[in-house]
């Protein structure tokens, strides 16, 4: 007999919302994983539990763990200015007003810190003006002309990390550090900072410190050609999205949205946080760091500034944290979604993990996240 999860997945596939998807609910060591449908509309390649997906912004929590690992190694300090590793941003000024000309700036009240990057309060990122994302303000036009790609997964950032940070450092901040929450830029800057702090490429750092210890064999900024060939077709609003070649390492390994992974690989990462930093009896991250990562660090005003990106949730380090009860659960649930059509959460109070992977961006707004989130609490694997 089909599980409730499989039935819910099949119903959405039958309605034509997805060609297929993979979903997983875990409680402790017990896991229910389902794969339904195919990897492309009109295709015949079945979705499998081990199908790889572009997980987009579900990359961000991985970056937060890597940052905290380096902090515990005393390689970096969360409170220190990022200019210690990124001299290109030293002396960045701040726009006199966010929608004003780039020539009208004021001095920064304080330096941007590593923690500001984790909490997305560095004073730069995607701009929300009412219901509009990235309005045609001078600062938005400037970063678009510089190809900094503050949002979106493809085309992938064309610049090498050193060139990207040089271009970023040529612009003023939008708001004073620590004042507002702005999406995405923090983990782009971290992509450069972590590699410099560790003295190795970001992909090597994540593989050595996270992927290999957790057994995440099919996760990376690129994957071998046979695995890349299995990536499902990407869709948004019914249209195929060209996503390029993921079998080659990118010029800029994006800590904001550049990873490929699988359901079980990401479950290994989710369990590390559920288990307060321990994997198989080995501590990889302190309990204190996990607590800091999964606790809200925003004020109510900053949460409000996150508008529909946050939807009333707070923000820890690289992920959202619910601060009050919502349609899915009580407060304290943490996780994040990816713009390619993926989502994940852990509920530390109920011991529940949900992972849903598709390559249909509409997952973010078609009700799937809420439906499957509520369903996860009724399932006993």
TrEMBL record:
Domain Beta-lactamase-related positions: 5-360
Protein's name in the database: CubicO group peptidase, beta-lactamase class C family
Entry-linked InterPro entries: Beta-lactam-related (IPR001466), Beta-lactam/transpept-like (IPR012338), Diverse_Enzym_Activities (IPR050789)
Origin species: Paractinoplanes atraurantiacus
UniProt feature coiled coil, ranges: none
Cited Gene3D superfamilies: DD-peptidase/beta-lactamase superfamily (3.40.710.10)
